[in-house]
Design goal:
The protein is mostly helical. Helices cover 79% and strands 0% of the residues.
């Protein structure tokens, strides 16, 4: 029954992805959007791909720093291929967390601790989500292009504050003692004990403040680069928005794409971007063209992850042929 349910969920996400892509095609068409895509200069496009490769490397560096504080340290040269493998597979897996599972499994097969890998990946995700929401909320409050009523200003300010404060509360001594009590109560179980131990491992990062600060700094830099990539591509096809507006819009696109309702965020990311840009009085065809351009940049920048799969296949083939 579990296997059938898993298959059903995958098929449902494929259906959602297909429906969203078809809806975009019906609503916007593709004529002018494709003209915008083909009209952008190759130099601007190559720069965008190079910048996105830098983002992936910085993201791998962040995860490696977090992992290095656990009992599963490894050289960055080993962490980078595993991370890039997850980045590549995340484009095709039926959940936004699929890439995390891929990189965890890839290093677990090489002898690293499963709990350390899961804990570091979880903290990695929390830091990323915290920074994205905070940047988006404060940028939306500051952007004159996005009209907000008093109630929305209050809600955004509260959201930004809650996102900033919640991780700090989870690191307080009282929260640590609570987790320790749960660990003692459920030490005789297997699954619950493993979950509590992973939560405790996440809390242990409170003793590695320099690493956390470095991870947050890297995340801010990463998000700024990705938002600038959108700005770079948008300017290349004639989307006349300020950089501050992109800082307000793109974080919402990131959060929507991370929802586990489509394959690799496909359709959701593009639909939310088009909707937000149209609301900001951007031509729908240009908005669709920008979404297609970013998708091409994203897929191209993630291609080195395919080399990890190829290298593994060649290694296994060589090992089979070795007498």
């Amino acid at each position: 029954m579990t296997a059938y349910r898993h298959i059903f969920l995958i098929l449902a996400k494929v259906a959602v992805t297909s429906a969203l892509v078809y809806w975009l095609y019906v609503q916007m068409g593709t004529g002018a959007a494709l003209e915008a895509v083909t009209g952008i200069g190759s130099g601007r496009l190559l720069l965008a791909v190079g910048l996105h490769c830098m983002v992936f490397i910085l993201s791998a560096l962040r995860w490696w720093l977090l992992l290095s504080t656990t009992n599963a340290p490894l050289p960055f040269s080993r962490a980078l291929p595993s991370y890039y493998l997850g980045v590549f597979l995340n484009n095709f897996l039926p959940t936004s967390m699929g890439g995390d599972v891929a990189r965890i499994v890839h290093l677990r097969l090489r002898g690293l601790s499963t709990k350390a890998l899961i804990g570091s990946a979880l903290v990695d995700r929390i830091i990323g989500l915290t920074v994205i929401i905070t940047i988006g909320a404060f940028s939306a409050l500051a952007s004159p292009t996005i009209p907000l009523g008093a109630d929305k200003v209050t809600a955004l300010a509260f959201l930004a504050l809650a996102v900033l404060v919640t991780p700090l509360l989870l690191m307080t001594p009282r929260a640590v003692r609570l987790v320790n009590r749960f660990a003692e109560r459920y030490r005789g179980t297997r699954i619950r004990r493993a979950i509590i131990e992973i939560v405790g491992l996440c809390q242990s990062y409170r003793r590695a403040k320099p690493v956390l600060l470095a991870a947050y700094g890297i995340t801010v830099l990463m998000q700024c680069i990705v938002i600038f990539i959108y700005f770079l591509l948008g300017n290349g096809i004639g989307v006349g928005l300020t950089l501050l507006t992109y800082f307000a819009v793109i974080p919402l696109v990131f959060v929507a794409a991370s929802l586990p309702i489509s394959i690799g965020g496909l359709g959701v990311r593009e639909g939310v971007l088009v909707g937000m840009l149209v609301a900001a009085r951007v031509d729908g065809q240009l908005a669709l063209g920008l979404s297609i351009l970013y998708l091409l940049v994203l897929w191209t920048a993630s291609l080195p992850g395919a080399l990890v799969i190829l290298a593994g296949a060649l290694t296994r083939r060589r090992d089979r042929n070795t007498p």
